[in-house]
Amino acid sequence: MLKLKMEQLAGMNCHYVRHSLDYFLDSMCKLGIKNIELYDAGQHYFAEFFTAAMVKDLRKKIEDRGLKLICVTPDQVLYPYNIAASEDYLRKISIEHHVRTLYHTALLDCKLMLLTPGFGNLNESREEAWKRSAEAIHFLAERADSLGVSIGLEHLTPISSNLINTAADIRRMLDTVAHPAVKALVDVVQVCTVGETLDEYFRILGKDLVHIHLVDGTPGGHLAFGDGELPMKEFMRTISRNNYTGFLSMEIAHRQYFMEPEKADEKSIALFQKWINELDE
Fold it and tell me: Cα–Cα distance between 41 and 13 in angstroms, integer?
């Protein structure tokens, strides 16, 4: 019997970046979404320039609408942050950026911050960059633990990172860092981009898999449900079969949705409900 629930589906603001924060939050309420993941998207939340007072105001906006923040996602690809950078100054400001975001995550009464491993120079040893990344992750894990926050370590496509691309890569980094505050965050687009299956991630990561980005793609693109070619219904079957009870964030991020982001969410929510009904029959 299918065990997935609508309450596990979380909204995300990636494709609302041309709309105000209030518009995004109001859209979530209108669509019946109770849980949200917040991407570091300029006018919505920009960790580098947010004061504690601004963070508290953000928390109030979320809580006043009866919403719950379940993950904070600082941008680590588009912005110049790279915790595995060979340049000392860049690695330093990257780590400081994430310490700041961890502090904000705690102030927002959120228990999870997404983290990516960074990337190394292609003309250097991958192991050197791996070592720098692992040291940075362990340092951040110590800070996270002191704040009552966990880190969700996400894999990236080979275009974005040469460090963590596969389930085995995530497992190796978790074992290298060996800190209870560091868990695994899986994106189904990344899973399909490297030719793996979601079942492999559940098998290799086990209980360390604590958060999932559920999104369609070709296999990339981060599209609304039904707009790509990924086996979304089969993903849901796999997630249910593995007794996963965490959240599933709709990381819809393609620019084609910037004009009418709410419609992309509305379509995705309707399909999610339809697939639940079909799989539960």
Answer: 8
